[in-house]
Amino acid sequence: MSFPYDLRLPGVTIPIHLVCEILAYTVGFRLYLRARRRQPGGMTVEQAVWTLVGCLAGAALGSKLVAWLEVFPLYWQHRANPLIWLQGKSIVGGLLGGWLGVEVAKRFAGVSQATGDAYVFPLIVGIAIGRIGCFLTGLSDGTCGIATSLPWGVDFGDGLRRHPTQLYEILYLTGLGWLLWTWKLPGAPDGARFRQFLIGYFAFRFAIEFIKPHPFPYLIGLTAIQFVALLGLVAAAISLWRQWRPTLPHAPATAHSTAKGSPAHG
Q: Where are the transmembrane segments (predicted)?
């Protein structure tokens, strides 16, 4: 196999990454619509539109911001070229931004019900399809790993056998999706599955970045993506704990509250 593995038609070459990206959005959106129909209760059309707008706007903004932070010196070198600043996206930033965008939109639209669970499997399938495109694009995509001597290392065209981190992510998402589909913790409230997905994905991205080449590490040897993934993991864990925290039982009446002169029943 030679990289990039683009689609070559008579007179035109279509980038495989673009094909997989369009397919990921299309399949993911169809799965989301199906999941939304199965959710109990429901929002009005206006509320659903606001939450979707919040999701898309937050995801787009978060994706670009984290991409800029990850290789900011490179973007700054080409600051006179606005087209360069339009390139690059980050799934980690998109997830965190999309989550924040939905929560802001829900407050604005007066939605109190949990809506995140409908996103889980569309996101898993969409990200996996997108990573196929990343793998087939090769070195220019910037998502392959560092050199390795492991037998499954892949030569993406530079003569080095590298970690196929895109395939690692697909395998991890497959396992995470199976776990979330088949195993539900007792008493888990609506929205818990989405937060569990975020915790699992952010943990993976924090770890996998250690075997990717990074020309611009930040503090303590971590990258911008790792810092954002760690922030998202902690935020999702705290949100899950708050959502799942059992309601404290009412304190039983004490001897002082039932003593003479103390109104036991106000």
A: 12-33, 45-63, 83-102, 218-241
Do 85 and 165 lie in one domain? The reply is no
Residues 13 and 71 in one domain: no
On whether residue 257 sits in a domain, the answer given is no
pLDDT tens digits, one per residue of 136-145:
999 988 899 9
* pLDDT, position 246: 52
Cα atoms in the Cβ-side hemisphere of radius 13 Å centred on 193: 22
User: pTM for the whole thing?
Assistant: 0.86
Amino acid at 24: A
Is the torsion defined by CA of 112, 237, 129, 104 positive or negative? positive
Dihedral of alpha carbons 96, 102, 106, 107, sign:
positive
CA distance 118 to 164: 30
Give how many domains the chain has, as a whole number.
2
Question: The domain containing residue 65 runs over which residues?
Answer: 44-112
Q: What is the pLDDT of residue 40?
A: 61
Give, in order, the Cα–Cα distances in Å from 160 to each of 13, 57, 147, 163.
Answer: 26, 39, 6, 10
SS3 89: coil
Backbone phi, psi, residue 155, to 5°: -85, 110
Query: Quick one: 35 exposed, middle or buried, by C-beta within 10 A (0-12, 13-18, 19+)?
Result: middle
Contact 162, 145 (CB under 8 A): yes
Q: Which of 4, 21, 25, 22 is nearest to 130 (CA)?
A: 21
What pLDDT digit, counting tens, does each position of 159-191 carry? Answer: 999 999 999 999 999 999 999 999 877 677 888
